[in-house]
Amino acid sequence: MKSLTSSAAFFAMKHANTIRVMILVFTLAMFIFAAGAAEATGTVGR
Amino acid sequence: MILVIAVFVGLAAGLIRARVNKTTYRANELRFPGLVILAFIPQFIAFSLPATRSSLPDYIVSACLSFSLVFLLAFSIFNIHNLGFWPMILGLVSNFLVISLNGGWMPISPEAVQKILPNAPAGAWSIGSRLGTGKDIVLALESTKLWFLSDVLTLPEWMHFGLAFSIGDVLMSAGAVWLLWNMGKKSKEFSHE
To answer: What pTM value is reported for the model?
Structure first.
């Protein structure tokens, strides 16, 4: 259990920047999706 | 969904910039990202989830949209220190303003609807009614408050893709591209900010 936790911590430290970038991109995509109000042909009358 | 493409364009451009600059693609710190999730959930239920998007009454959907925009505005204000957010905040405020002044829906002109749905069967849409299950309501320009902020822009015909969007959408997309592009700049440039 201890080694699993330390492996997870090591993985998080090693990939901290990638994880931060992924969170930012995901948050931005959600922001744009929710704040935007564009209407495309495919979205009408779904 | 088309606006999300701006995020991926910005991401690709930023990653290429980081590679050219031989630097790490670094994320800016976001404050209270949970607010975006809180804003996204009611919109997902109201506009995307097949089980609810066509069964919820319009007044609840409209309330979900306004509620959601308030959370997004709060998130934007908490992140105003980040320059990339400025055009996005401007775009959000622009969309929020025109939606609030027109009964909680984004107005779209009949001319714009005809452009994006040239083959729609008779009765598929009408002036004064919500367009499909989206955020838009069809309103004549003369009865739209701040019509220039509504979905009056369309893609040129040669692109063969029906899309109506607002100035606010353009500003938000530009802000997202700029923010993601700037994440690929040299570390020295970061330290000068």
So the answer is: 0.86
- Res. B28 pLDDT band, cuts 50 70 90: confident
Cross-chain CB nearest to A43 (options B26, B134, B168) = B134
pLDDT single digits (tens) B38-64: 999 999 999 989 888 889 999 999 999
How many domains is chain A built from?
1
A29 residue type, one letter? A
Decide if A30 is inside a domain.
yes
Q: What are phi and psi of A39, to 5 degrees?
A: -120, 115
**B33 and A23 in contact by Cβ < 8 A?**
yes
Amino acid occupying residue B78: F
What distance in Å separates residue B188's CA from the closest CA in chain A? Answer: 18
CA nearest to A39, candidates B84, B32, B106: B106
Structural domain of A15: 2-34
Model ipTM over 0.85:
yes
**E-strand spans in B72-135?**
106-108
**Bridge partner list, B151:** B108
3-state secondary structure (DSSP) of residue B93: helix
Residue A40 lies in a domain: no
